[in-house]
Amino acid sequence: MQTTHSKMSPLPNAGKPRSGISSLWKNIRRDRQLLILFIPCIVFYALFRYGPIYGLIIAFKDYSVYEGILGSKWVGLEHFRRFFDSPDFWLLFKNTFLLGLFTLLWAFPFPIIFAVLLNEVRNIKFKKTVQTFSYLPAFLSVVIVCSMVIDFLSPTNGLINTALKAMGFEGIYFLAAPEWFRTVFISSEIWQHMGYEAIIYLAAIAGIDPTLYEAAKVDGAKRWHMMRYITLPSIMPTILILFIIKSGSVFRIGYEKVLLLYNPMTYEVADVFSTYVYRKGLLETNYSYASAVGLFEASIALVMLLISNAISKKAGGKGLW
After folding, report:
1. Which of the residues 73, 150, 175, 259 has the least number of beta carbons within 10 Å of its own beta carbon?
2. How many whole angstroms separate alpha carbon 178 and alpha carbon 300?
3. What is 184-196 written as a DSSP string?
4. Relative orientation angle of helices 178-206 and 124-135, to the nearest 10 degrees
5. Mean pLDDT, 10 residues at a time, over the chain (321 residues)?
6. What is the rounded radius of gyration, in angstroms, for the C-alpha atoms of the chain?
């Protein structure tokens, strides 16, 4: 009786590494030049973004410079309670929310409109000239931009008031009038960032398949119809992602521009969380209280980001994660 011995077939994973470590090192060796270029970015975020998180402990302590962070007395949520009970809380909340919301509603669409219209320009030389001049303000520092705004709005010899007086109107002291502060702030934001942010949308438009426009022309579509039914829907994922990022910054208004443009006469509409933190922390050296206010502001910004991401995923199917 003959016994047949069947040969055992090799296992599917035979000869393969037990883990993905070797594959990881292979990818690292392959992309080592790109990873080396990425090192400065990692160092920057480690030192200036994640490193300072350790200092947030002082928001829950009565911080003393002499005793240090760990040696200072623990007070828990005392600084948060004091801030919420302060008469400044609701004023700061309202000013920060309204200024951030109006900036989002007015400043966000302008780069999209500008990019779409600029894409329709057929004169290449004129197109490049307009684009160059439009994003030049983004390379200016906030101090220079605010100085230019102050000069333009000067009540004596400013460009805007000179034009108003030439047309028979009275001059307006824009920076001393509370009702004009948000308009001035949002207008300067649009002027400074519109051209630079439009580059992202122009890059997205450049990635649209040209055959879509050719097919639309054959079907008799006008340029307005192509913008409406091809260009805007094609760049909608980019618009949604940037909208989510911008929505998370509604409560994260930088203190620099507000600090340079506001004055005691406009505090009632211009004072926001960031300028309040600057005054309490650096000018009054109340570090623990200022850290508590800053942590509250960051928490609200995180909540806004999560809400915007959830709404975007539900409405358009796209999100940051």
Report:
1. 73
2. 26
3. HHHHHHHHHHHHH
4. 140
5. 46 51 85 90 90 89 88 92 92 93 92 92 90 90 92 89 89 90 93 92 92 90 89 91 84 87 90 92 91 91 85 71 72
6. 28
pLDDT number for residue 29? 87
- Structure confidence at residue 317 (pLDDT): 64
Q: Name the phi and psi angles at 285, rounded to 5.
A: 50, 35
Question: How far, in Å, CA of 305 to CA of 302, rounded?
Answer: 5
Q: What distance in Å separates the CA atoms of residue 306 and residue 247, rounded to the nearest whole number?
A: 9
Element (H, E) at 141: none
- Which of the 8 DSSP states describes residue 169? P
pLDDT reported for residue 65: 86
Report how far residue 152's alpha carbon sits from residue 138's, in angstroms, rounded to the nearest whole number. Answer: 18
Rounded-to-integer distance, Cα 258 and Cα 272, Å = 8
Check residue 19 and give its pLDDT: 57
- Alpha carbons 131 and 123: distance in angstroms, whole number: 12
Fill in the amino acid letter for 296.
Answer: F
Q: Which run of H or E residues covers position 16?
A: none
Determine the Cα–Cα distance for residues 158 and 178; give it in Å rounded to an integer.
19
Whether the Cβ atoms of residue 111 and residue 105 lie closer than 8 Å to each other: no
Measured CA distances, 320 to 225, 253, 312 (Å): 30, 21, 9
**Degrees to nearest 5, angle at CA 99 with 286 and 316:** 120
Q: How far apart are the first and last CA of the chain?
A: 66
pLDDT at 308: 82
Domains of the chain are 23-76 (no CATH), 77-316 (1.10.3720.10)
Alpha helices in the chain (DSSP H): 21-30, 32-45, 68-71, 78-85, 88-107, 109-119, 124-135, 142-152, 159-166, 178-206, 210-218, 223-226, 232-234, 236-247, 255-261, 267-270, 273-278, 287-316
Amino acid 49 reads: R
